[in-house]
Amino acid sequence: MAPPAKSQVIAILVADHGLSVRHACQVAALSRAAYYRPPPDRLDRDTDVIAALTALVTETPQCGFWMCFDAPRLAGHPWNWKRVYRVYKTLRLNLKRRSKRRVPPGERPLLDTPAVLNGIWALDVMADMRYSGTRFRTANVMDEGNREGLAIEVGLSMPATRVDPLLDQLVAIHRAPSGLRVDNGPELISENLRAWTARHGVRLLHIQPGKPTQNAYIERFNGSYRKEVLPAYVFGSLDDVRAETERWLTIYNTWRPHDSPGRVPPFTFPPRSPAPPESSFKRSA
Predict the structure, then answer these.
(1) H or E segment and range at residue 121
(2) To which H or E segment does residue 154 belong?
(3) Which of 27, 37, 233, 264 gives 20 to 30 Å between its CA and that of 150?
(4) Cα(243)–Cα(233) distance, rounded to whole angstroms?
């Protein structure tokens, strides 16, 4: 039994059973000096150890105990392993830790898009559910120059290996853009997408995490699609989703006025040169 626990036993014997402090100390096998001595403040004593361990696991989240012990020792701290392990467990670092997937540092541009076609495309991925409860995802692509919805790809899943062919089909129709603006979703920070942009000479423009306003055009597009299509119909199959999406996208681009371009549809601000026949755009199953 540790001295703090013995001190509690002595306090109970004195308060509840009427023993003297001397007798209670004899029963608990604790000296009176130790009983009267104020308990040490471990937080003050272990401040340096806590700071060292916290800095280490912040820098290398997957390090285990022995790395947490050896690194401070190499830095000149004389702490023994028992003290470090006690603090290590108190901080709950002995439990399994999951490190957050981070985006490598890169260009973080503000939303400043000139009204030119194929300047910057915006790409985002959405998720919804069919009536049966099966979830599906969509990859939405738009041209920020005239707010035109270039494509909405629908599938049960939308990995990066499916996003790349979609972009290839759009490049074959419209030519490659100068930049591709995306958020930090798992499909959009993949090595596949980085390789695709490098292959086509396209700048990959990741917005800052937690700053969706830096991709406001595609977020506004997603909001219209979610409000006017996804909750408005009971979809029994993905073909139903694709058919209604194509109908809505045609209306969105050719008829529906938009406020920011001057209350005109995207196809008239500015007009895009005629695209190849629709049969040239082949959707994957």
Answers:
(1) strand 120-129
(2) strand 148-155
(3) 233
(4) 12
